[in-house]
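Quarterly update from the structural biology core.
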Amino acid sequence: MNRREHLKLLLAGSAGAGLFLSTTGCSTEDIEESERIIAENSGNYGRTEVEMAYNERLKSETFFTTSEHQMVEMLSDIIIPVDDISGGATEAGVADFIEFMMKDIPSYQIPVRGGLMWLDNECRKRFNKPFLECTSTERTQMIDEIAWPEQAVEEMGYGVRFFNLMRNLVSTGFFTSQMGIRDLGYAGNSPGFWDGVPDEVLAAHGLSYDKKTLDECLQVDERNKLAEWDESGNLIR
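Predicted structure, tokenized:
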């Protein structure tokens, strides 16, 4: 990847690029260019063909059963519910993210599937019904026993470990989504522009910029354009 592509990647390499640009004072032209690059690459900018093929294969496979997926959605929204700032985890696509992670990192499969089975069994013992059929109060009562490791009794150890893993997966999925990034108020690296010494300061000292400096260092119209290098690393523009 050459340096120009690195610069493009900074602008368009993530789903949050539009948010980044909209919060840093970039021009409408910059935002449109970023959105065009993202659209042309279907969100795969910077990935190799092998990586894209791998991702597509995983997306075509299904790990969770329907009821398991529903449990993941419910747990996700218990961990990160809707609030006054943003939507909940499910609305942010966290359940689909966790589905993908089960296939991308197979070592998660047994702990997560086993944890979902454990949760169902515990609910049947307590409430005579699986987790999905429990009332909101019953689900909260069950989760409260495994959500606070320092307060949990020893018998809840397996459930505590499962819920810790789920909390990590949900938090990762949510706060790397566009909704989660907006929730954090994260704007990314904001470009800084230097317009030179203010005119009034120059005037106070009887100074001014010469034409060469203005042409080479203070080209306001050029500041949002991507630099280009040739194959030898020489700057083209």
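Confidence is low (pLDDT under 50) at residues 1-25.
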